[in-house]
Prior knowledge:
Structural class: alpha/beta
Number of helices: 13
CATH class of the largest domain: Alpha Beta
Distance between the termini: 42 Å
Strand order of the largest sheet: 6-7-8-3-9-10
Strand content: 15-25%
CATH architecture of the largest domain: 3-Layer(aba) Sandwich
Shape: globular
Bound molecules: adenosine-5'-triphosphate, magnesium ion
CATH topology of the largest domain: Rossmann fold
Number of domains: 2
Number of strands: 13
Order of helices and strands: EEEHEEHEHHHHEHEHEEHHHEHEEH
Amino acid sequence: MIKFKNVTKVYEDGTEAIKGINLTIPKGKLVALIGPSGCGKTTTMKMINKLISPSSGTILINGKDTSQTDEVELRRNIGYVIQRIGLLPHMTIEENISLIPRLKGWKKEQYEGRVDELLNLVGLEPKVYRKRYPLELSGGQQQRVGVIRALAAEPPIILMDEPFSALDPISREQLQDELKSIQNTIHKTIVFVTHDIDEALKIADEIAVMRDGEIEQIATPSELLSQPANEFVRAFIGEDRLNARQTQMQVIDMMEDNTNYVHYEESEYTLIPYDATVQEAARVLLETGKPYLMVIKDGKKTGSVTARGILRAVASEGKKEARSV
Ligand SMILES: Nc1ncnc2c1ncn2[C@@H]1O[C@H](COP(=O)(O)OP(=O)(O)OP(=O)(O)O)[C@@H](O)[C@H]1O
Ligand SMILES: [Mg+2]
């Protein structure tokens, strides 16, 4: 877990880049930092691996104050991916990927297999690419190598600063999908900076919206869409996305009771998958006439929704639509 406590950063020329932020990045989650150019995303990220030191406040990693941690050691345990790849041009792909493991003293047998495994993970045939130099790869392929290089030594934390922004839209979508599926298996703590709200909504567990050195809102993608904290966040998300999302709101977003449901009689409810839409949920309630819907996720009961909850969701949808006309 990474924790920012009242962190500020004033650069030497007096620029107040970060004006006192509090932020918790839970272990194993992907948190996106998003906001306009100059709002302080990169500054926030670089304070985690001490490329920049805070002017005041503390940053804790697993409870340990980073100002008390050796920075070389710290950086070896934090993967870092930047926009313009940063592969070393005179090293082969294999050497680039195994750099940190070698610095950490892994043996050849340990990292060789790892290099192949990682190349396969992002669809680059090891036999073809292992011995190539970065310039012998396309931009998208180089960026894939940049991502897996950050994963190579299995750091618990990975920082990614607009890693896909230099890519064409198709490679970008592919890499987003790949990152998502990799994260589903490795569960690293990832801080992901982006300008692109669609990218953030797609890949993040939580999104921190920043503005002018401050955090305006931290929320899950569905909370952000259903309850933007203020006009700035609303505008940042965009009216189109807000409207599009409402019709797709899932039953799990409407769940209102996640304690009492265990006592309900089986005759009182109907099971419904967590990703059913409002409309589907309303239809099931009408058809069955039962008082509750039991929300099922990963094969387990996770909570319930009442007819009232559905009505409320539908009503707030109507209200938002009315406001946007
Ligand atoms: N070394 C520096 N000296 C002085 N000011 C700086 C320095 N680095 C960044 N800044 C300023 O701090 C503010 C935050 O910069 P930062 O790079 O963190 O923004 P960002 O959100 O990453 O922007 P972008 O989306 O353009 O990458 C900006 O006003 C920037 O001009
Ligand atoms: Mg930046």
